[in-house]
Amino acid sequence: MTGKVLTYKVWSEEGHVQVNNEGAIDFYKKFGFEIVETKEHYYKRIEPADAHVLQKTLRKKVQTNGTIE
User: Fold this and answer.
1) Range of the domain at 29
2) Residue 66: which pLDDT band, with cuts at 50, 70 and 90?
């Protein structure tokens, strides 16, 4: 059978934010990012040296013509 095949392209975006930077953390969260990890001693010349890793998973629908089996 021939028809349209629907697939998704999936990827994620990440950002690193100093743990005490509430403004940046709120900004990322406003756009759907979540804290997924905290890295200790991430920064070398500023205190606190720890950073949150914020991540957002994105997906885009990609429609292609193909064969459905």
Assistant:
1) 2-67
2) low
Domain count for the chain:
1
Separation in Å, CA 38 to CA 44, 49, 50: 15, 11, 7
- Which CATH number do you get for residue 61? 3.40.630.30
What's the rounded mean pLDDT across residues 40-68? 88
Q: Is 61 exposed, middle or buried (0-12, 13-18, 19+ CB in 10 A)?
A: exposed
CA–CA distances in Å: residue 24 to residues 18, 20, 42, 54, 59? 8, 9, 16, 10, 24
Mean pLDDT of 48-67: 86
- The helix/strand/coil state of 61 is strand
